[in-house]
Hints:
Layout: H1 9-13, E1 19-22, E2 29-33, E3 39-46, E4 52-59, H2 66-81, H3 86-93, H4 99-111, H5 125-143, H6 153-164, E5 170-173, E6 180-183, H7 187-206, H8 232-247, H9 252-264, H10 268-272, E7 279-280, E8 285-291, E9 294-299, H11 302-311, H12 333-343, H13 352-365, H14 370-377, H15 385-391, H16 393-410
Antiparallel strand pairs: 1-2, 2-3, 3-4, 5-6, 7-8, 8-9
Helix pairs in contact: 4-5, 6-7, 8-12, 9-11, 9-13, 13-14, 14-15
Amino acid sequence: MAERKRIGLREVRALGPNQEIWDAAVPGFGARRQRSPAVAYVLMFRTSEGRTRRYTIGRHGAPWTPDTAREEARRLLGEAVTGADPAADKQSKRRAETVAELCDLYWSDAEAGRLLTRRKAPKKASTLLSDKGRIEKHVKPLLGRMKVAAVTREDVEDFMHAVAAGKTAGRAKTAKKRGLSNVRGGVGTASRTVGLLGAIFSYAVRHRMRADNPVHGVMRPADGKRERRLSDDEYGVLGRALRRAEAETVWPAAVAAARFLVLTGWRSGEALGLRWADVDLTRRTATLADTKTGRSMRPLSHTACDVLRALGRSADAALVFPPTRGEGTMTGFRKLWDRIAGLGDLPADVTPHVLRHSFASLAGDIGYSEPTIAALIGHRGHTITSRYVHSADAVLLAAADAVAAETANRMGETRSAEVVPLRANG
């Protein structure tokens, strides 16, 4: 084992990839980091039969801190002294009998960061929230009581058709006081939920709860996503709504965020999580460390930079678009967006994501290539995207300026453009 020292937050944060540290106070208690940024607390111990076991306590973060994980390690060591085998008990609990139990095990591992995505990283909080909703609102009500080993492809197909037909639709209570959630069915919901169900049963196969995945071979319909974009008239309506919102009592940061989204094509979560430390207004770039597709560097148009400068940066502000109160991101942005859209009577299906698709479509309309558009909005559609951002700064800045200028023009906010000189090759 490596050198022993008392594990604290400083030691955990200092762990590099594939490094581990062992505690000086509790024998066998340690923390390790693999390739991802996640750190897990572990315990090495011997059973009464002399077998060496490695037990993963959990991922760093609530509720596991160095102190709480150390106390859990002491408790587990106490069980081992009395002849118990916590690692074997944990393994036996993984053999869920019903689909509901299987879902709980899958969710527990996903939440703890033990299930990695195709990018070899734990699922994001937003993805976990979506998964939890689909499990609780669709999977458990229809399949939860079935035995894991008994589910067939026909059962999965019946499940898919039931969700598509709205059998699970309704209203459900949320954790908030007097909170209600509208549970919707439909083809898109059915397709995405069956995709999640396939991942859950793959988890069951890996843990030897059954030999095959019953979702394999099920023909899923298209998820029903509409490629909605703003029309020319809707651009004008949105521009008037934003100007009206600025004149009224709508939270200024929310109005600025909405304007920034339509001018950049960013995902709303990326904009709302943007920190001033990530922005370089001189170079007109923003560096996002952790997006849906990994690290991403984005060019910023002059118009988008003007939006950021108009906000002003207070000395204690970390987020570019802060919430109305408290810390963290602006969780109420969707309601504020609905209020802004209502000022212009925009159709209900004009969402923040429609602004993203409109930006990409407009870029295509004025002649930009797919790799350029992908670099502007952070798609990983091409393996050259990240390199493209570094080697063609002037090209991307010019593209960002052109699309933003056309967007502003359609919103009735024509601004003077700045010419960006391009470097000659060679």
